[in-house]
Structure formats: C-alpha cells, structure tokens
C-alpha cells in the first residue's frame, strides 16, 4: 500500500475544502449541543426529579444508530448539511449535558451561599459564579464532544455529506488507498488541533485553576 | 440596632431552631451569640439577612422590618463573614472584596479602588490583591472575608464562626485585629461562636443559647461570668469562670511599689542579699531581663551574665489574669511592671494581685446582683422568658 503523492498534490484544494466542511459540521454540532445542553443542564441541576429523565433521554438518543437518525431526519431536512448537523448534535448531548450537570454540581455549596449572602440574585449567581466554576468540567465535555463529532462527521457520507468521509467512499470504490489514508490523517489532525485549541482556550478562561497567579 | 421580637423558627422537618426570641443587639456594639451546636445561634444570625426566614415574629434592622425589604438589597446592606471565609475561588482577592460594591453598581474602577483600600485596612499587602484565594493561608483568607464584608461600609456586620477554622495563634491575631477595627469603625456586630473564651474577649454583650433555640441569658461578659442565670450557663462558662472574669480587668488601677533593679552590667561581687533573695535584672534601657537568685551567685562576672529566671513583664493594659499567671511563674512572688516602652516602672506583690482579683470578683458579683434584682422585677411583669435577656433595656 503506497501513497500516491502526485494525487495529493493535484487535490490540495479539494482536501482543504473537505477539511473545512468537515470541521464546520463538527463544530456546528458542538455549538448547537452546548446551546441545548446549558439550559437543560440548569433545569436538571435545579429540579432533581427531572435530572434522571433528561440524562436518561440523552443516553437513549446516543444509542440510536447514526444511519437510523439520518433516515428518520430525511423527511424533515432531506439530504442536506442540516441533517448532518442535527444528527451529530444529538450525539454531543450525551457528553455535554452530563458534564454540564456535573460541573454545576461541583460548585461548592458554600460558594453559592456566599453569593446569595452578598446579595447576588439567582440569575447573576448562575452566570457569574456557577457557570465559571463549572467551566473546567464543562470544557472536559466540550473536548470529548468535539473530538467525537470530528470522527463522526464521516458517517454522513451515507447522505451525501460527510466532509473528509467522502474520501473513504472514493478510495474504496476505486480500490485506491491514497484518499483513504489522506482522509484518516486529516481527520486525526483536525481532532488534535481542535483539542489543543480547546485546552488553550480553557487555560485562558480559567486563570484560577493554574498553579501560579495570573 | 437589631431587634428580635417574639421570633420563632421551625424547620419543615419539625425541629424548632429558635424559640420565642426577644432580643436587642445594641448599635455600635458586639453581640456574641454562643451555645453548643444545634442551639439556634447560627439560625438567629441568618434570620437577620434573611438567609433563613422566620416562621413568626418580627426582626428589625435600624428600625425597618427585614421581611418588608427586598432580600437581595437587604443582604447588600449587611456585611456577612462566613465560616472558613467562603471566598469565590475564581475571583482574585481584589474582585472578591469588590463583590458588593459591584452589585451596588459602583463601577469597576471605584469598586477596585475601595477594595485596595480595604486590603490595607485588614492588614494585607497590596500585591495580595492579584492573587486567588487558594494561594492564601487560612488566616489571610479570613482577613479577605472581613474586607469583603466591609466593602460597601454596611452599618451591620454578621460574623458566623469566622475564626473557627484557623489555628489558635492566628485566631488570637484575628480577634485583636477585629477589636482594633471595631474601635475605628463602631459597627453593629453580631458574632456567632461556640468558644466562650472568644465570646468573653470580643463581646460587649453575650447571649447564651440552649438546645431547642432558647435564649438563656444575655448580659455583658463581666455580669455573665459573675452571676450566671442558671446551672446551664454555669456549666457552659466552665470551671475557670472566675479566672475568665479576671481577664476582663486590666492592671491599670493596681498599685506598684518602687523596684530597685540591678543593671545587667553591675558585677555580681557588688550584689548583696539585702534587697531580698530574688533581684530583678534590667538591660541598660531598663527592660527586664529576669530574676537573679542572690543565694546562688556565681563567683565572678556581671549580673547580666549570671543565670536568670525569665520574667514576663506586664503593662497596664494587660489583664489581672496575666498578672495572676505571672505570680505563679515568678520565683520572687512579684511581677515586674513596665511602661508602654517596656521599661521597668515597679513591681507588684503576689498578695496585692490576689487581693485585687478577689475585689474585682466581688465587685462584678455585686454589680450583677443589682441587675439581677431588676431582672426579677421585669420578669415578674412579663410572661416572656426571654425578657431576662435585656433587663437593662426594659422599663422596670
């Protein structure tokens, strides 16, 4: 199995376009997942009886096979990027929701109590005390969700999307390994770079977790 | 002034935390709430800023019913120092202190400037402001907690066992600082502790609670120690009750006799036993170095080089208790007295200190008996048990 470097040289534009499309699908899913998880996590954190239901639901959704999700979505959004993103978003919920709830749980009762005793109202406490303190745990979830989404985008090749996943189908159909290898390597690279950037982002956002002062 | 009027607190699980509490906490004074755990002292404190809502009764701060005010706004107007500081781990020390000013809409610049000022007030270095709470020692965190409570200059300060989590040495320092601050600021302070020594040290008035949320007695420390209301209070004050009373009396009015100390550079050959067996040796500046045994003088050398028994010199601001303690340790039976600069001014004999201690105790007892009579009269007129708490404020 050898790599045809000339093919790669001829297709750099395609590879770039596919990488960007791939990343865009994955990041949209994580972003939407966060947007949905945050309010749900606050509800699950505050209203105990709903916690089991919401976390259970996100688990159940995760067990639905990806092809089934796409098939179910076809009547709604057809063979579009929207279908890809909705499918991926559903999968991110299992990590994002659980980590956000756990993050909120990890905020010390004493700290919340202090905020209340100083005269901070509940919404401000949530935004300026609870969420910042939950950030390390939430970010751990975001990292997993991001890497997971980047690896999952390829599945959407079934519905004609799939970013770098299209290289796999192309390679298999022509029994030509170069696009497959390029797709795997680029997917890995995207995942590694995205994860590194998230680590850097967390470092900037949570100065208090560092050993020495800002 | 903070007023409790027939306040009850029953929790949903049926336990009564505070039972029919009527109590006044005077303006500009420190009222200490003491009692064993589960006696309702913390609940009482937390009802003042509505962290706990009373089941019935009225609580007024500065004449205004707390329940008639917006809870968040009320809390911003009352300083609160929480157990183990309770600082925000994600905010710098400066931002922690600026919390309430920012909530009040002061603007970041003014809030920060105020925070920096308070850092100095509570005795912390300016560069502490940029650090995060976990980078500070327990004692430093506690100081930040006090600064945060003082930030918006509230007239009332609630302190819930603020010095419970630091070691005894740091605790004493923090208590001293609080007394110093209170002298400058004259806040109305409500302080919760389970440590009776802390209560005696800090309180202008001490309110003792018994399990079930009953206030048993509320009185100035001297009166409480001299004349406990019942066996519960007596037990709570402990077996060293009389000694604690002596800790409240200073040496200011205790007479001293002129001392004839030896200078450290005088040769021992010149020392005679005429001034008694034990002679006080001082430095050139007149500071006491220790007691010299004239029965066991070395053959040569100066008084300063001879073996000395250490002397702990006492200032006028020290307590009779410290003096009594020193009479036990001093081989001569006398304590050395010094001025504010630490130079010897004279000595006081053990007998004199014992006599003063007994007199101080008798005087406190007599004073307590007078108010106790007033209490009985007030008690007879009012069916509420808690009136014993505020005998002097009640019309007889």
From TrEMBL, chain A:
Q: Where is the ABC transmembrane type-1 domain?
A: 19-198
Which keywords are on file for this protein? Answer: Membrane, Transmembrane, Transmembrane helix, Transport
Main localization is membrane
The question of whether Kinase is a record keyword is answered with no
What is the topology of this protein in the membrane according to its UniProt annotation? Multi-pass membrane protein
Residues passing through the membrane, by range: 20-41, 53-73, 79-97, 133-160, 180-205
What superkingdom does the record give? Answer: Bacteria
Which cell locations does it reside in? Answer: Cell membrane; Membrane
Q: Which family does it belong to?
A: Belongs to the binding-protein-dependent transport system permease family.
The name this protein carries in UniProt is ABC transporter permease
């Amino acid at each position: 199995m050898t790599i045809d470097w000339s093919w790669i040289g001829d297709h750099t534009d395609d590879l770039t376009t596919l990488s960007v499309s791939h990343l865009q699908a994955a990041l949209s899913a994580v972003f939407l997942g966060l947007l949905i998880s945050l309010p749900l996590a606050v509800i699950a954190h505050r209203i105990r009886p709903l916690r089991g239901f919401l976390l259970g639901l996100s688990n159940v959704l995760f067990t639905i096979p990806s092809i089934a999700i796409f098939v179910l979505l076809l009547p709604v959004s057809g063979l579009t990027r929207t279908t890809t993103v909705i499918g991926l978003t559903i999968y991110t919920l299992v990590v994002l929701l659980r980590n956000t709830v756990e993050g909120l749980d990890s905020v010390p009762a004493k700290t919340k109590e202090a905020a209340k005793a100083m005269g901070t109202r509940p919404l401000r406490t949530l935004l300026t005390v609870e969420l910042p303190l939950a950030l390390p745990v939430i970010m751990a979830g975001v990292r997993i969700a991001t890497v997971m989404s980047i690896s999952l985008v390829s599945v959407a090749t079934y519905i004609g999307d799939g970013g770098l996943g299209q290289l796999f189908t192309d390679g298999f159909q022509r029994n030509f390994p170069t696009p497959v290898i390029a797709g795997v390597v680029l997917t890995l690279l995207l995942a590694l770079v995205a994860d590194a950037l998230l680590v850097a982002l967390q470092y900037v956002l949570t100065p208090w977790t560092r050993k020495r002062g800002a | 002034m903070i007023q409790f009027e027939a306040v009850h607190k029953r929790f949903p699980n049926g336990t009564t935390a505070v039972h029919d509490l009527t109590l006044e906490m005077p303006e500009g004074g420190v009222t200490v709430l003491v009692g064993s755990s589960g006696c309702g002292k913390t609940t009482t404190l937390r009802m003042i800023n509505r962290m706990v809502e009373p089941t019935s009764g009225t609580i007024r701060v500065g004449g205004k019913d707390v329940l008639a005010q917006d809870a968040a706004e009320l809390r911003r107007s009352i300083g609160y120092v929480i157990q183990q500081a309770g600082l925000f781990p994600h905010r710098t020390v400066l931002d922690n202190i600026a919390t309430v000013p920012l909530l009040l809409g002061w603007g970041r610049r003014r809030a920060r400037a105020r925070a920096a000022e308070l850092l100095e007030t509570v005795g912390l270095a300016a560069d502490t402001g940029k650090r995060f709470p976990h980078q500070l020692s327990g004692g430093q965190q506690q100081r930040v907690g006090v600064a945060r409570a003082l930030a918006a200059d509230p007239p009332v300060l609630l302190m819930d066992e603020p010095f419970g989590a630091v070691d005894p040495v740091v605790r004493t320092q923090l208590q001293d600082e609080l007394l110093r601050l209170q002298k400058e600021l004259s806040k109305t302070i409500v302080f919760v502790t389970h440590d009776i020594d802390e209560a005696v040290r800090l309180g202008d008035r001490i309110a003792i609670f018994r399990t079930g949320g009953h206030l048993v007695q509320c009185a100035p420390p001297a009166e409480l120690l001299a004349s406990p209301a019942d066996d519960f209070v007596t037990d709570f004050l402990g077996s060293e009750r009389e000694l604690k009373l002596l800790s409240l009396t200073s040496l200011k009015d205790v007479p001293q006799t002129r001392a004839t100390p030896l200078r450290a550079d005088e040769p021992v050959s010149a020392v005679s036993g005429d001034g008694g067996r034990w002679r006080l040796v001082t430095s050139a500046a007149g500071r006491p170095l220790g007691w010299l045994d004239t029965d066991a003088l070395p053959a040569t050398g100066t008084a300063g080089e001879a073996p000395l028994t250490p002397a702990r010199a006492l200032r006028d601001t020290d307590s009779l208790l410290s003096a009594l303690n020193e009479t036990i340790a001093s081989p001569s039976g006398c304590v050395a007295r010094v001025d504010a600069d630490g130079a010897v001014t004279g000595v006081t004999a053990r007998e004199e200190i014992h006599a003063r201690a007994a007199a101080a105790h008798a005087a406190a007892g007599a004073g307590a008996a007078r108010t106790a009579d007033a209490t009985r009269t007030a008690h007879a007129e009012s069916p509420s048990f808690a009136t014993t708490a505020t005998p002097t404020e009640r019309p007889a």
